[in-house]
Amino acid sequence: MSLFLRPSFSKGIPNTFLRKKRKWPHSPYKTKWHHLFDQQQAMQNLKQLASSPPPSQIQGKTQNPNKTPYLLSCLVTSFKAYDCEPTTGAYRFLVKTLTQNSQFTELDLVLLHLQNFEKFETPERLFSDLIRIYGDNGMFREAIDLFFRIPKFRCVPTVCSLNSLLSILCRNEEYIQLVPEILTRCRIMNVRIDESSFSILISTLCRIRKVDYAIKLLNSIIDDGFEPDRKVYSLILSSLCKQKATSSSQVIGFLREMKRVKLCLSIVDFCNVIRYLLTKGKNIDAFGILNDMKTEGIKPDITCYTMVLNGVIEEGDFIRAEELFDEILIFGLIPDVNTYNVYINGLCKQDKVEEGYKMIGWMENLGCKPNSETYKIVLEAFCKLREFNRAGEIWREMKLKGAQNLHAYRIMVCALIRRSEIVEAFQLIEEMVNRGFVPSSSTIEEMISVMCKAGFVAEALLMLRKVFDHAIVLQAGAWEALLLGLKLNPGLTNATLANLVNT
DNA sequence: TTAGGGTTAG
């Protein structure tokens, strides 16, 4: 206050108004400043009161839910003390504090007070935030009621609060069904829906795998003159690609449609289409999409190339695979471990396993560390060619580098069994189980089946014992193989069996 | 540069 008096004193003019009226002179500037200052003081006071527990709680009494909640009375008294009207900020503070403490009964009374006793226009933001909070707490009915009550708070609901409501309802299986009715009521209330609301609805339809409906809605809003953004199209495309029942003509058709409406297609869109085509075995079409990308001016990244390279190799088109690998390098892309794995697999498919093995050295020199899968590919290829000595060498290298994994163990165990090195195979199974590589039931089934066919029924039973120790559930196939093995080995006496099972 | 997305074969 002294700051205000200083200028008049410094000029030596006596403040006669103050002396005569014993009141501060009013200037619009001072009034506004004072008003804001008072509100700030009241707000500070409110926060201070809120941080200390209410007297009833100190005395250990429970509050009467019908009485004015403590925080609300703090708000009223604080602002009264400074002779000013409560601000929206104060109410937002109350809403935040009460919702954080899950005091929703108190919150209802605060809202009622805001609705009936205040005069100011409540900002819509308060409602959209509260609707989200209600949604997070599973209070969908309260959220809907609040939305339709907004006009009572001297506020015009717009698409902002509607979108809040739509996004929470669309996340709930039960309340999602109320969305059409709510949209109809909104039309009566003159709440203008725009692209953002449709985007919520389309995303929801995609999420619940009703992509056909999403496309229908997209088409109908375009007819109504709306211009959905690229993200909506991308989402539909990605959902189409994820849906098993989608035909490739549907996917390609939608991609064409995106091009037709002159949307700026992204690398993700192309990537999704490529992945979809590859899963459908349309490897050559996937290669075509990669070329389309380039003509559209989008540089495919290493992931796109790796996927397409794999498709081309699957087709057995090794010349094109070589060209593609060269193209990766020419474009300045750095192949990563996945790319090398795909490429090495291609070499192995052509029985160029030694070349594949050499590639591991080259990739290491180029700073790309091979992983367990890299070795596994080569290991498996050597086993397939029955080059067990080379496989053994790879296995030892893998051991040195700690690159053994579950698949590699499975391959080695099967290779040993095929070579009738049953003792070694057992040792390896023991080792893998001890190292935490629990074989899957299908692996066990495969091992038991191989063992039984090779006549090692007793050993297969021993393995069964190990399997039980690890609580692995066996599929019917394993039991079948065992029974067949037992039938083929009548020499296996009951005593031997009992001995094996009790080991 | 990142985002999200990628590899075997039984």
The overall pLDDT, averaged over residues, is 86
Query: Order of helices and strands, N to C?
Result: HHHHHHHHHHHHHHHHHHHHHHHHHHHHH
User: How would you characterize the largest beta sheet?
Assistant: none
Helical segment tally?
29
By DSSP, the count of extended strands is: 0
Radius of gyration: 37 Å
Which residues sit in consecutive blocks of at least 5 with pLDDT less than 50?
1-12
> Structural class, judged by helices and strands?
mainly alpha
| End-to-end CA span | 94 Å
Tell me the β content: under 5%
Overall body shape: elongated
Measured as a percent range, the helix fraction is over 70%
Please describe what this structure looks like.
Helix 8 (124-136) packs antiparallel against helix 9, helix 17 (283-295) packs antiparallel against helix 18 (302-314) and helix 26 (441-453) packs parallel to helix 28 (476-488). The chain has 29 helices and no strands. It is mostly helical and 503 residues long. The longest helix has 24 residues, at 28-51. It is 71% helix and 0% strand. Among the domains are: 1-120, no CATH class; 414-503, no CATH class. Mean pLDDT is 86; it is low at 1-12. It binds one DNA strand of 10 nucleotides through helix 16, helix 18, helix 20 and helix 22.
